[in-house]
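Hey, resending since the last one bounced:
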Amino acid sequence: MKIAIEMFSVVIAITLGCILFASSISSNNQVSDARDFYNVAVNRIEDSNGNEKVIEQCVTEAEGKGYQLLVEDLTIYKEQPSKLVTLQYKVTIPLFYLFGDKFQKQGVIEGYAR
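The structure tokens again:
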């Protein structure tokens, strides 16, 4: 009987550990996806030399993915356009879905497209 209780406790501990690791991996993947989208958006803005149509396209793509992309023009010299690009995203932690709560954390990435 003692062995059965010990084995049951080990199985429960392993299951909880797997749930915690899976939750951590999922939230890290969400952050990585947001960072990848941000890098692609900044590269597209830089390659287009700050074209307004490209910026609008990036903003609509961000909204489609659940992000908020803000682009502010900080150009001083016309030869060197500069844009402040801010991406706001939310990370959900799947572990809290087990308890019925939808816990989300706000993340922000800022940088310049020159």
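The radius of gyration is 21 Å.

Sorry for the duplicate.
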